[in-house]
Amino acid sequence: MLPAVVKLCCGISYPHLRSMAGLQRTAVAVIGQEITHLQRWRQLQHHIGTHFGLNYKEPKHEDVKPMQCTEEQLFFTEQGQDAMRKALSMLEEKDGWRVEIAESNGDVICSKVIPGARRVFRLEAVLEGSVEELYDLLFVRVEEMHLWNPSIQQIKILKQVGPGTMVTHEVSAETAGNLIGQRDFLSVRHSYKQESRAYLGGAAIQLESFPPQPGFVRAEDGPTCIVIQAVENDRGKSRFTWLLNMDVKGWLPTSIVNQALPRAQLDFTRHLRRRLAGNATLG
Predict the structure, then answer these.
(1) CA of 175: how far to CAs of 148, 153, 189, in Å?
(2) Residue 277 contacts by C-beta under 8 Å, 6 or more apart in sequence?
(3) How far apart (Å, rounded) are the C-alpha atoms in residues 129 and 178?
(4) How far apart are CA 219 and CA 95, in angstroms?
(5) For the residues 254-263, what does the mean pLDDT come to?
(6) Helix and strand totals (H; E) in the chain
(7) Mean pLDDT, rounded, of the chain
(8) How far, in Å, CA of 94 to CA of 28, rounded?
(9) How would DSSP label each residue in 168-224?
(10) Alpha carbons 246 and 180: distance in angstroms, whole number
(11) Is there a contact between 178 and 63 (Cβ–Cβ < 8 Å)?
């Protein structure tokens, strides 16, 4: 039996699926992969919930509205969920992390080496903003990020795959002191939000219709994720956990990259705090 969420998304039932001679094998394979990832996702949610104390719960079936999904939409949704699952799995691993930076305001960045010899970075901070505010700034209004983050030149949504998944093209800005240099990214972004927490995940993706742009080095981001959880007894504050996992490409020495990435996390968080403070002033 297909999970109810897949049946509702695709607007079909399992008996109907078996009788659809015209359904392409690739679409069936994608649906099958989605079921497998959903099952693994549920298992991982239990472990992540225990580790972070998040008590993750899936949306009730009656809260999921039926919609017609194309093969492409299923593919991007599966890619986004898979990136989220892998990134959260990295966060759940307790061993191997070492402190890179500890700021006086309580922000801490740790790092560890993952298979393939790449180093990933985990930032943990408490922000003066609600889960809803942060979700709105970082996902819903992602195309406006360049307005408050000078390290970004542009983010454009190329494909909106339902409310929780999108494909974006991002171009970093040419800023003074940027050791890595200007890059562009093509990514699938996936999210899930509850009242007191939100998950944002993503990974690099390739599209024949959108090859690397002339003049840019196309970097690859992910699997990466952000976990936003309301501070207990103060819903106006949020615990912000960000796993940064990036291959900047090009010919930069690893030592330079490993210095630049955690600093970029601190810069991003500083700009985010300023934006949140501006929202509070306007409010």
Answers:
(1) 14, 10, 25
(2) 128
(3) 28
(4) 28
(5) 90
(6) 6, 12
(7) 78
(8) 37
(9) EEEEE---TT-SS--EEEEEEEEEEE-SSEEEEEEEE---TTSPPPTT-EE-EE-SE
(10) 12
(11) no
**Position of tokens 């070492």?**
98
Q: How confident is the model at residue 269 (pLDDT cuts 50, 70, 90)?
A: very high
Element (H, E) at 280: helix 254-282
| Domain architecture of the chain: domains with CATH | 4-92 (no CATH), 98-282 (3.30.530.20)
Residue 70 token pair: 């194309």
CA angle 196, 200, 206 (to 5 degrees): 165
How many angstroms separate the CA atoms of 268 and 104, rounded? 17
Separation CA 4–CA 61 (nearest Å): 7
Q: How confident is the model at residue 65 (pLDDT cuts 50, 70, 90)?
A: very low
Residue 221 phi/psi, 5-degree rounding, is -110, 130
As a whole number of angstroms, the distance between CA 213 and CA 159 comes to: 18
Which pTM was predicted? 0.74
The more confidently predicted of residues 40 and 110 is 110
Closest of 108, 126, 105, 92 to residue 232, by C-alpha = 126
> Closest by alpha carbon to 224, among 204, 251, 201?
201
- The pLDDT score that the predictor gives to residue 70 is 81
